Every structure is written in structure tokens, then in C-alpha cells.
What we know:
Layout: H1 4-14, H2 21-33, H3 35-52, E1 54-55, E2 62-63, H4 69-72, E3 77-84, H5 87-95, E4 101-105, H6 123-131, E5 137-140, H7 146-159, E6 165-168, H8 184-192, E7 195-196
Parallel strand pairs: 3-4, 3-5, 5-6
Antiparallel strand pairs: 1-2, 6-7
Amino acid sequence: MASQEIETLAAALSRLPGLGPRSARRAVLWLIKRRETALVQLLDALSQVQASLVECQVCGNIDTSDPCGVCTDPRRDQRSLCVVEEVADLWALDRARLFTGKYHVLGGRLSALDGVRPEDLAIDRLLARVEAGGIDEVVLAMNATLEGQTTAHYLAERLEKFPLRITQLAHGLPVGGELDYLDEGTLAQAIRARRPVS
């Protein structure tokens, strides 16, 4: 039987995605065995990240600077904007290095059941970015869920008044799948085969 502090740490770790109670206990034991090196490094890294994290006011990404590294990268295509639901989706697409434009994070997806309305998402900021000009294409990279596709349809309707091309990721993504869990091959195919929203 472990102390209350160790059990509290294991319980906190078990709330992380992909870690259940047993995996969390194994992680805690591993950290305890390496408390002079790995535990100290982990605590230091967590403290630094906690102190310096900010949300980018341009795109909604999470970074240590505002605007974020993606928004300030001069090599990115300024005319192409990819709209995603969450920061994890941005990171998944950017990790694959297939999209060279800018991003916009909505902060969720429309969901009547969960009470998520358009005003709860960063849709007004998206429309302001498009209205400011200089964007030729908006890629709607919503997850292949009912709520994701509802969000994409709503955005397409709001964006159709602007003189730009509106595309979405190609179908073939697993239904009910989320971008953060897809392999790079699937993401590459989806980006390459994007098509206009009808």
C-alpha cells in the first residue's frame, strides 16, 4: 500500500489520455526509481511549461510565445488557412509537414447535445481573419464525426460570401476518427485529396 501522496500522483497520471490506473502506477514506480534524474527533469519541464504557456491570439495555438511559432514563420503560405477543431489537430497536421499554410483553431465543434453554439467557438475570429483579406483558400479540417461535419457545413455557409476557395479533407478518414490519432500516411492522403465544399 503506497502513501497518500504516491496514490494522488498515480491518480493524477491515470487521468492522462492513454494511461489507466495500472499504467499510471507503473509510471509512478519508474519515476520513483529514477527520482534523482527523471523525476527532477520531469518536474522542471512541467514547471517551465506551466510558467510560459500562452494561447496565440491570432490562431488559437498553444505555445510559449504570442503570436506562436506557426504564425510568425515567414516560410508559411499566407494565402492558405487550415481550420481545425483543437490544438491537437493542428499539431497532428503540422507534425506530418503536409500543409504549409497557416492555421486557425476553433476550440471545439458545434454540438447541440453538449450545448456548444457558434458563439462558443473562435468562429468570429476566423471570419475576421478572412475578411482582412490575403487568404485564397480555407481548408476545413474537421474530424470525421457528425459534429465535425456539422461544423464544417456551418463554416462553409458562413465563408461562402468571401472570394476564396473552400476545401475540406478528403473522405476516407475513418468515421468517428480524430486527426490526432491518425497516422501520417492517412493524413497525407487526406490533405492531398482535399476537395471543394459543395
